[in-house]
Write a structure and sequence with these properties.
This protein is of the alpha/beta class. The chain contains 10 helices and 12 strands.
């Protein structure tokens, strides 16, 4: 647009009418559209002059697309980035501030509305977090009484109490170790202290089932041995659970003869073996006793039930506890013996019910 008003004569360019003395004539086809002075050099693009309005002789014209709104002077340097000069309108700022204030107000109102209940929830959460986890009891199989050693110590004021307790525990199939006064000389007012280590807790729980009011004491020993320390408050062990009758082949029967009948012991032993008993020695009575009656059963504390089983096959026998260890039984035949009861006349032993494996409960902590 400016070129039309710049005072240059378009008609002169149209005919290529330049000064012949100024040099070679420019291409008329180029002058037809460019409209520049041939003497001044290459004519800039007229399409750019049509919108830019700059002086073609002042230098390279900047890209008009980069400066549609800024209107800067092309000769003063590069045009700044339009996005850098863009600024948020004040109305936008006010609108953002109003939205922020409203949001804060809604949050404050919500806190006021749910404040008490939220506080209760948070308090309960912190309280639950501070409390230790609950201990969950664990049921485990109880170890057999004969699978660990029990030392029996007397911490009471009664002499011989430890020995009596040790004897009773042996009758309940516990494996008794040392029997003595308490080496720690502790004052125990309870019925008993059951001392154990970390790995001996199940064993201690089995032993504690034999006495009321016992206190478990973890002394951090190694292994599974347990100490039964009799206290001042001890009176007796709890009643033992009834045991099933022993099997005929689970113990040894020795048969001895006190009569003048030769071979009586060996013949009787063969009859017992035929009924399922496990026989041992067959000989004359080692005690050289003379028995006028049917005979005598000799056994120890742990062989009482076994002796009762023999007595079912030969009624009228006398009983004698000779204090022997183990479960063996001696059948001593006297002068009044004639024969065993017929097998059909012997009452059958009750079939033991399938026992539920004993369990103990650990605290889980």
């Amino acid at each position: 647009m400016r070129d039309r008003e710049s005072g240059r004569t378009a008609l002169a360019d149209r005919d290529g009418g330049t000064d012949p003395g100024s040099g070679p004539r420019a291409d008329p086809a180029a002058d037809r559209e460019g409209g520049t002075d041939p003497a001044s050099g290459p004519r800039p693009d007229p399409a750019a002059d049509r919108e830019g309005g700059t002086d073609p002789g002042s230098g390279p014209r900047p890209d008009p697309a980069a400066d549609p709104e800024a209107g800067t002077d092309p000769g003063s340097g590069p045009c700044p980035d339009p996005a850098a000069d863009y600024d948020v309108e004040p109305a936008h700022r006010v609108r953002h501030a109003v939205v922020l204030v409203l949001a804060l107000g809604l949050v404050a109102a919500a806190l006021v509305y749910v404040g008490p209940s939220l506080g209760d929830v948070l308090s309960a959460a912190f309280a639950a977090k501070s409390e230790p986890p609950a201990c969950i009891p664990v049921r485990v199989a109880a170890p057999a009484p004969g699978s660990f050693v029990v030392n029996v110590y007397n911490g009471s004021d009664r002499a011989g109490q430890g020995r009596l307790v040790a004897k009773d525990l042996q009758l309940r199939d516990f494996k008794v170790g040392a029997v003595a006064n308490d080496p720690r000389l502790a004052v125990i007012n309870e019925s008993a202290h059951i001392r154990h280590g970390p790995t001996g807790l199940p064993q201690a729980l089995v032993l504690a089932q034999q006495v009321a009011g016992a206190t478990l004491v973890n002394d951090y020993r190694s292994g599974t041995s347990v100490d039964f320390v009799v206290g001042v408050g001890f009176t007796a062990l709890l009643p033992a659970a009834p045991k099933p009758p022993p099997a005929r082949g689970s113990f040894v029967v020795n048969v001895y003869n006190t009569t003048f009948r030769t071979g009586l012991a060996s013949a009787t032993a063969k009859q017992l073996a035929a009924r399922g008993f496990r026989t041992g020695k067959s000989a004359n009575d080692p005690l050289k006793s003379m028995i006028a009656g049917v005979g005598e059963l000799r056994y120890g504390d742990r062989g009482e039930r076994q002796a009762q089983l023999i007595g079912k096959h030969l009624p009228g026998l006398a009983s004698r506890n000779d204090g022997r260890p183990g479960t063996s039984v001696d059948l001593v035949l006297g002068n009044g013996y004639t024969a065993l009861l017929p097998a059909a006349s012997v009452a059958p032993e009750p079939v033991p019910a399938k026992a539920t494996p004993p369990m103990v409960t650990l605290s889980g902590c």
